[in-house]
Amino acid sequence: MRRCHQTSTRLRSPRRPCATWISPVREAQRILFLFAVVGVSLPAAGALAAPGQADLSFGTNGVAITNEVQLLGYPANGARVQVARGTDGKFVVAAQILMDSFTSALGCGVLRYNSDGTLDTSFGFGGGVLLTADPCSSSCPLAIVRQAETVPNVGLFIRDAVPCVPTIGSPSLLCGGVVVQNDGGIVVSGGAQSFCTPSTFAAFFGGFARLTANGSVDTSFGNGGIVFLSVPSSLGQMILQPDGKLMSIGVRDPRPAADEDILIARLEPAGALDPTFGGGAGWVAVNVFGRDNGGDLALQPDGKIVAVGARELDGTLNDWVALRFDSNGALDSTFGSSGVVVTDMSLGESSMESAFAAAVQSDGKILSGGVGREGAQMVRYLPGGALDASFGTSGKLTLPTGGTVTDLDLQWNGKIVVAGRGSLVGRLLEDGSMDPDFGTDGRATPGPPGAVNSALIEPSGRIVVAFQGSGGVGLAAYEGDPPPTPTPTVTPTSLPPTPTLTPTLLGPASGCPPGPLSSCDTPRRSRLTIVNGEDDTQDSFALTLWRSRPRRNASAFGNPPSHTTTFVCLYSQGQLVTALAIPPGARWQPVGQRGFAYEDPSGSVQGIREATLERRTGWLAAHETSIRLQAFGARLPDVALPLAQPLDVVVQVHNDATPICWGETFTGTNVETNASRVFRARKP
Predict the structure, then answer these.
(1) Which helix (H) or strand (E) holds 233?
(2) What is the structure's pLDDT at 372?
């Protein structure tokens, strides 16, 4: 979910970029995309790179910069620079390009990099293309510029382009978001300036443009490769839905009114506006108050759409907004107030503030990031729209980094990757604190040589960010946390055979009876989290039963290193849902006289990595039992989520050597999340 700077989605005449000047070209300037990738000298990392350090196998010392050699234009100041990744591992970057300083004519540069940071010269002209568009033309609505002429004090005229040559002078195409489709096709969202209709003269019309995998205009998409909305508008960030549909957020300009609306448009894969969205229009627009701004959007597992932005941008209110829509584009009345949440980030003071980044956690909580009175800020909402008091201070967080949050992404383990201006690449823990295990004090080292606009996390865990710097636009790669990948292991001959168990082995043979045991020791506190990821490698099961009574001796655990099997049984509405069995053997080790600890980093048995059976010490907790278990990965038996209503969830732990069991019951009041991907419950 990529982000752009707040000024880049405004619809009126594009602001002339500050600190950017290009001398007029004498007669004609040939625009052949001859890109030079240059290295940036960065301090060398150690032999074993830690999370937050540069990936030295990428580009030059972790960085690849593309200079605009013989390219008419430079990245506009505060430009959108977005990155997307294809299934082939290549990266596509879309960058806003200033083509002419006199008229502020803009184009959209699209580059493709190989996975190692080198330019993919098989794409376009030497690795990239420069797009321009004209919403007034039926014969040449989208073109790739190859040659142009800048007439001093007049403007820009395109002389050579494919597949057609636009006739309009000084065309402008805003470059918003970018996605790579499964067939390698590239879709860019943005907006093109119109000069043909008096009532909307110089207005921008939002649109989606598509390139084929080799970088040519896909003329089968929409009209000549582009689809325009019928209302003055501009589109920014874009996401690719699992069903192949394309969705983008931006603003609608309801001229001649002064207000602007948050707009979301959805497109079918072939390039038609989605008739099932927005009452058949394919787009929806919401005005919260005054000149609103659409920053970013995210898709929930249940198909609902989360959008963030600002209300009354450039005015006196300047509040962050979050909205949630049903899959058909109607506001979700179960979120906030009629689908809208307004958050004041400046304590009532007037300041420029807006949200530009959104992400939905596996537990349904919603993260938003942007800029406020204190600089780079974030908030986290509960699934219903209330601020999450467990994040930052009462749900709000000011990063110690300054700048602006422009992108958010989530690692497999729940850690939060933050990117933004001020060369920010950082990582937060779940509570919002900076992760001390990432880079230096939670920030990547060294930071990218420019302002970061966009970030993504690869399946390998590597973090790749797109930035704009004085040397051009580029990518930087950093080490992240590789997801757990279970690998087959050979059981040493000194260990006894390790029996396996699947959920199909129900009843006494599995060690878990068909229904819950009638009497088990109950804990003072308990937690249960089950994640059913998009693929089996992301599944997880975590259980904590803390300080159970009555007090027991360590003999209650049997002898796991020798012969005792420990069972974890999960029930829903009295029926066995899943069963885990931790076999006896050398993976169990005594913990003094208190109990036993199990460790298997590969999770070779049902994904179980760690378990502890411990008799607590201390006079208040003497002999009280605490049990913990962590399992994840493809070997973990699947749990069908959400669990059945009404919620009556029981988890029990027992063994085959003693009649003692420990367990907890979670009902609706104890369950925080019961969704298709996550179940989370706790007591008290």
Answers:
(1) strand 226-240
(2) 85
- How crowded is the C-beta side of 296, counted as CA atoms within 13 Å? 30
From the centroid of its chain, how far is CA 298?
8
pLDDT averaged over every residue in the chain: 83
- CB hemisphere CA count around 536 (13 angstroms): 8
Nearest alpha carbon to residue 456 among 127, 178, 135, 216 = 178
Specify the DSSP element, H or E, that contains 173. strand 173-180
Q: Is 195 exposed, middle or buried (0-12, 13-18, 19+ CB in 10 A)?
A: middle
- Cβ neighbours of 275 (radius 10 Å): 12
Tokens of 3: 């982000």
The dihedral through the CA atoms of 491, 495, 497, 498 has a sign that is: negative
Best CA proximity match to 308, nearest among 375, 406, 392, 393 = 406
> How many other CB atoms are there within 10 angstroms of residue 496's CB atom?
13
Burial of 634 (0-12, 13-18, 19+ CB in 10 A): middle
Backbone CA torsion sign across 516, 519, 521, 522: positive
Confidence of residue 496 (pLDDT cuts 50, 70, 90): very low
φ/ψ (deg, to 5) at 338: 55, 35
Contacts of 200 (CB under 8 A, 6+ apart): 194, 232, 255
- Cα–Cα dist 210/48, whole Å: 41
> Cα separations (Å) of 601 from 108, 496, 581, 612?
47, 18, 16, 14
pTM of this structure: 0.67
The answer to whether the bond into 446 is cis (omega within 30° of 0) is: yes
- State the DSSP string of 616-649: --STTTTT-EEEEEEEESTTSPP--SSPPSSPEE
Rounded distance between C-alpha atoms, residue 621 and residue 614, angstroms? 12
Tally of CB atoms within 10 A around 485: 11
Amino acid in position 405? V
Could you count the other beta carbons within 10 Å of the beta carbon of residue 41? Answer: 10
HSE-CB of 455 using CA atoms within 13 angstroms: 33
- The SS3 assignment for 110 reads strand
- Residue 37 pLDDT more than 80? no
According to DSSP, the β-strands at 648-655 and 396-398 are unpaired
Q: CA 220 to CA 228: how far, in whole Å?
A: 15
**Parallel/antiparallel/unpaired status of strands 305-311 and 319-325:** antiparallel
d(Cα 374, Cα 378) in Å, to the nearest integer? 11
Q: Quick check: helix, strand or coil at residue 210?
A: strand
Token pair, residue 151, equals 């007439």
Structure tokens at 516: 């819950």
Give the pLDDT confidence score for residue 533 in this predicted structure.
80
Confirm if 75 and 483 have CB atoms less than 8 A apart: no
**Three-state DSSP state, 587:** coil
482: left (phi over 0), alpha (psi -120 to 50) or beta: beta
Outline where DSSP puts E strands in 60-154: 63-67, 74-75, 81-85, 91-100, 105-113, 128-133, 142-151
Amino acid letter for position 327:
S
- Is residue 274 a contact partner of residue 319, using CB atoms and an 8 Å limit? no
Distance of CA 354 to the CA centre of its chain: 18
Q: Is the pLDDT of residue 90 over 80?
A: yes
Count Cα atoms within 13 angstroms, Cβ side, for 11.
31
Rounded to whole angstroms, the Cα distance separating 375 from 183 reads: 40
Residue 515, amino acid: G
CA 288 to each of CA 177, 251, 259, 353, 405: distance values in angstroms, whole numbers, following the listed order: 23, 12, 10, 15, 22
User: Using an 8 Å Cβ cutoff, are 677 and 532 in contact?
Assistant: yes
Q: Note the pLDDT tens digit of each residue in 288-332.
A: 988 888 999 999 989 999 999 998 755 655 789 999 999 999 999
- Tokens describing residue 657: 């050597």
